[in-house]
């Protein structure tokens, strides 16, 4: 994992932070290698890695399938979750302070997980998602319990326009007293997309106000689209 840690360390976190504050999302290019992406895809059918499979159509979540990983997480996922979290906790604390929310997130992920477990949230939330032709994911928020971390990430494992077409990542921004704004993103294979789980602060004439955001995936036109989601809080079930 030395190479991966170096890639995380070499990321321009100042630029990433600025993008998160301004847009509620940021893309880090080429954080994962092709081989790392392909290994995660090849492990999709190894049942022992996962605690739960969700067929999206059964729950009207969309069309596709995703699987939640078991603890302990694969080393690559554990490394990303542990070493990216501190960079994001400082962003989260700025957001909550701006919105006068009396919550402060610890700088170490292990300490935040202790808070989750004390709140009866002990299930792993890292998941891998698979979409075929016609697949999509409805707009949603990944909260999983009363205690949640307000930022999460998606790792794109497939190459747009080569492995699949369509399947864009969609964010909607619900501006108070106005129509919602749609944001369409196309991260490439190996890219990590960081985005808000629930909301972001926006500065107005009378200070900061809360802008709610949801995310989803547009319809896959051809091929197969794999992605991996890392949520930093655990789930109740």
UniProtKB/TrEMBL annotation:
Residues annotated as coiled-coil are none
Necessary cofactors: L-ascorbate
Please give the Gene Ontology molecular function terms for this protein: dioxygenase activity; iron ion binding; L-ascorbic acid binding; oxidoreductase activity, acting on paired donors, with incorporation or reduction of molecular oxygen
Which key words are in the record?
Answer: Dioxygenase, Oxidoreductase
Q: Name one Pfam family in it.
A: Oxygenase-NA
Where does the Prolyl 4-hydroxylase alpha subunit domain lie? 23-233
Q: Which InterPro entries match?
A: DUF2086, Pro_4_hyd_alph
The UniProt entry, under SUPFAM superfamilies, shows: Clavaminate synthase-like
Q: Provide the protein name.
A: Prolyl 4-hydroxylase subunit alpha
Q: Which organism is it from?
A: Chryseobacterium nakagawai
* Source taxonomy: Bacteria, Pseudomonadati, Bacteroidota, Flavobacteriia, Flavobacteriales
């Amino acid at each position: 994992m030395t190479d991966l840690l170096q890639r995380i360390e070499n990321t321009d976190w100042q630029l990433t932070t600025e993008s998160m504050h301004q847009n509620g999302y940021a893309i880090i290019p080429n954080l994962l290698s092709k081989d790392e992406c392909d290994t995660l895809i090849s492990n999709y059918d190894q049942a022992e890695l996962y605690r739960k499979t969700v067929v999206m159509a059964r729950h009207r979540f969309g069309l596709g399938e995703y699987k939640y990983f078991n603890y302990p997480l694969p080393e690559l996922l554990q490394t990303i979750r542990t070493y990216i979290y501190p960079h994001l906790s400082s962003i989260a604390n700025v957001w909550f302070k701006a919105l006068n929310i009396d919550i402060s997130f610890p700088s170490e992920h292990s300490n935040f997980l202790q808070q989750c477990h004390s709140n009866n949230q002990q299930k792993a939330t890292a998941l891998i998602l698979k979409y075929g032709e016609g697949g999509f994911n409805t707009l949603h928020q990944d909260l999983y319990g009363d205690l949640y971390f307000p930022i999460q990430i998606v790792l794109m494992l497939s190459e747009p326009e080569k492995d699949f077409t369509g399947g864009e990542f969609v964010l909607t921004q619900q501006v108070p007293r106005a129509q919602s704004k749609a944001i369409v993103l196309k991260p490439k294979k190996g890219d990590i997309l960081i985005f808000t789980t629930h909301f972001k602060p926006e500065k107005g004439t009378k200070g900061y106000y809360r802008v709610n955001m949801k995310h989803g995936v547009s319809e896959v036109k051809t091929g197969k689209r794999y992605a991996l989601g890392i949520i930093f809080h655990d789930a109740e079930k």
